[in-house]
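Quick look at the format.
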Amino acid sequence: MSFTLNSTAKLNNGVQIPRLGLGVYQIPPGKSTVKAVKYALEIGYKHFDTAKIYGNESDVGKALKESDVKREDIFITTKVWNSDQGYNSTLKALESSLKRLGLSYVDLYLIHWPVQGKIIETWKAMIKLLNSGKVNAIGVSNYSINELKETIHSSDTVPAINQVEFHPFLNQKDLLQFCKSNVIQLEAYSPLTRGERLNDPNIVRIAKAYDKTSAQILVRWSLQHDLVVIPKSSHEERILENSQVFDFHINQKDMEILDLLNEDLSTVFLD
């Protein structure tokens, strides 16, 4: 499986999403986010993932505005937060996000978390936004198989993406298989375990064998599982490092070793 920084995955509505992106979760609003996004653009990143709750949508927008890269060559994701879910409030939430981003549309709009009792109502609003042309693709984040089933059965529109935490230590094989069977692209956030397992002996040993870093092994593992992957960092050297994963291939034996590291580790709950 060969990839480059320009490689894309084709979503179920035909939209192409870059395989590798920069997540800006927990990057402080203001100069830090602007600097990180501008640097990523300079070295070839085209995919940026933000959200209302991150508080840095306007900074992502500022970086885009100050860049020479054409808008149509950039892929922007943002998300509707839990307190904004529901039909009318979801519609309003996108308008607010677009205003902060300084954009007329986003490439991907996600429901950030499933809110029980509002899953179907919010999804109907997402479909309306898709049909309006203000978003090119719609999807969900942090959805289980049951929540995906509820969403799928509520309409003829299947989510294009399910963005979840995914790495060898949280290897959600059943969810991945369900998404593949239903043509839902799985997208991995926190692919680097937020640093929690970068010193794992198996990761370190495999990284040394390929003359790569532990982070690069984890990103490459996600890519070879056919995921879209959005490692986050505000440090230029790490943003560059995370993109240097296209000149090697993890062999089957090492992929199998990595596949067996699952311990249901969710770093979302480490704070």
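Next, a different chain entirely:
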Amino acid sequence: MIWGGQAMARDKTEQPHAVDRHVGRRVQEKRLDLGLTQSALARAVGVSFQQVQKYEKGTNRVSASKLFEMAEFMKVEIPFFFHGLKDAQPGLGEEETPGFDHEDRPTKQSVEIARLAPRLPLRNQKLILEMMREILGEPDDRPH
């Protein structure tokens, strides 16, 4: 927020904006995909690792200059951080519509699973998928 020409911290009761959460999640996904720690990313863009934590949670907004530096460091285009956002945003007249939210935050392991899975033969991918569904108690969606 801007008040009298000065940036103000977000009110403690104010929830992070859906776009800030989405961008933060995409920063985290790419960081984990590259095998980087929060400290390594923080050093590369000149902030503390605590600041990277806040970016990834969406509690703090990533400035345009920091987003540019992150994109350069992680070798992605800036639109990468917004990918998947446009379809989930409410229209201007839909004030009460809930914003885009991610229920499950990626972990280092889930990102690694996603990275490794395409390298497995299709049969093994299917077996692992069946095992994961069984562990989670989710039904098999395949037609029989």
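The CA atoms of residues 131 and 137 lie 10 Å apart.

See the schema section for token definitions.
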